[in-house]
Amino acid sequence: MKTIKLLSLAIIVVLVSSCKTATVYTNVLVPAQITVPQHIQSVGVLNRSLPAKGEGWSNFLEGFITGESIMADREGSYNVCKGLAFKINTNPRFKAQLMEGEDLRGTGTKEFPVPLTWDQVDALCKKYNVDAIVCLETFDSDISRRSASRQVERSVNGENVMVTEFLEDLSIRVNAGWRLYDNVTKKIIDQDVFYDDKAWSGTGNSPEDAVRKLPSKRSAINDAGYFAGEMMGVRISPNWVRVSRYYYKKGDDRLKSARKFVKVNNWKEAVVLWSQSAKSPDNKISGRACHNMALAAEMEGDLNIALEWANKAYKDHMLKKERAYINELNTRLMEVEKLKEQLPGTGE
Predict the structure, then answer these.
(1) Do residue 189 and residue 318 come from a single domain?
(2) Interior CA angle at 43 toward 237 and 337, to 5°?
(3) In this structure, are strands 42-47 and 95-98 parallel, antiparallel, or unpaired?
(4) Is 72 in contact with 217 (CB distance < 8 Å)?
(5) Phi then psi for 335, rounded to 5 degrees?
(6) pLDDT tens digit string along 322-335?
(7) What is the pLDDT of residue 10?
(8) What's 26's domain CATH number?
(9) Mean pLDDT lowest for which of 30-44, 208-222, 299-313?
(10) pLDDT the model gives residue 7
(11) What is the DSSP letter of 345?
């Protein structure tokens, strides 16, 4: 069985403001918010949020009254589905494919329609060779724009004068409602709604100039919708999250020398130096080295050894800052147990 690593090998080293430490960034696999049954290995992403025939006029009227772009919600709903499919396919749990070209309609509002029949679900699953359907059942967007002006001081021809500055604010909230249909057990195993709020501001010497600094309403809906789709991906699929870790680069010559190995992701060579510093009679140096040993163990995928070293730094060498790292490691250990349920074959 294929083993799935929980830590990516791509590590970027950057300096932070402290003269004692440097920071590394890496990607950590975190569990999904819900555990999807293992018999589901592939999913189809279906857009069913468009209004049924005969109900489109009310949506057109709403868009006309609120100023929303005509057809913006239609385009936005497709971007929601694209966002979900992208998120799933960049993570190790499922494979997803868009069920494009299917014309199954819903309410066109925030209200959920009646569920698909299991005959419909089964036919679609067979057509696309998938085990389940993640269906966008609802999609709606609300847009508001606010205009204002203020007096600001500017330098004009070498003189300070008061001029009028114009401001335009655009805000959007999208609503995406989902159902997850399990075609094997014939059960709806999840139903949830995601909201995404985004805001943009523009300033200029005229109202028109300020408006030009804002994205189009259609573009704003598409961006917010895509993100809402990605959030559904986080709910049902383990995903990679970028995290930062720090290590000590100063204290003695070995701590300084180990830095060149960290820069090239050579933790084994760094450990050779840090393990010697961990025996230092100087409590500060040995404590820092113990923290670095904990980090190396985490980067090599051994969280239990990492926790042992972190506890040593905290308890034996009174490194107070280590408590936060101990909490992070304990959280990761709990996440690993959950990942084992979601991804058989998971290994540290």
Answers:
(1) no
(2) 25
(3) parallel
(4) yes
(5) -65, -35
(6) 999 999 999 999 99
(7) 47
(8) 1.25.40.10
(9) 208-222
(10) 61
(11) T
Q: Where residue 187 sits, what CATH number does that domain have?
A: 3.40.50
Q: Same domain for 118 and 225?
A: yes
Report pLDDT digits (tens) over 227-279.
Answer: 999 999 999 999 999 999 999 999 999 999 999 999 999 999 999 999 999 99
* Residues facing 85 on adjacent strands: none
Do 125 and 168 lie in one domain? The reply is yes
282 contacts: CB under 8 Å, gap ≥ 6: 251, 252
Assess whether 214 and 309 both reside in one domain. no
Q: Could you tell me if 225 and 145 lie in one domain?
A: yes
DSSP state of 215: P
- Cβ atoms of residues 202 and 213 within 8 Å: yes
Backbone phi and psi for residue 234, each to the nearest 5 degrees, phi listed first = -65, -35
Which of 292, 222, 241, 196 is CA-nearest to residue 33? 241
Query: Where is pLDDT greater, at 257 or 160?
Result: 257
Region 285-303 average pLDDT: 96
Domain count, the chain: 2
Strand partners, 106: 51
Q: Domain for residue 185, yes or no?
A: yes
Together in a domain, 204 and 317: no
Q: Could you report the per-residue pLDDT of 4-32, keeping only the tens digit for each?
A: 566 654 444 443 435 789 999 999 999 99
Q: Is residue 324 part of a domain?
A: yes
Find the domain containing 46 and state its range. Answer: 42-237
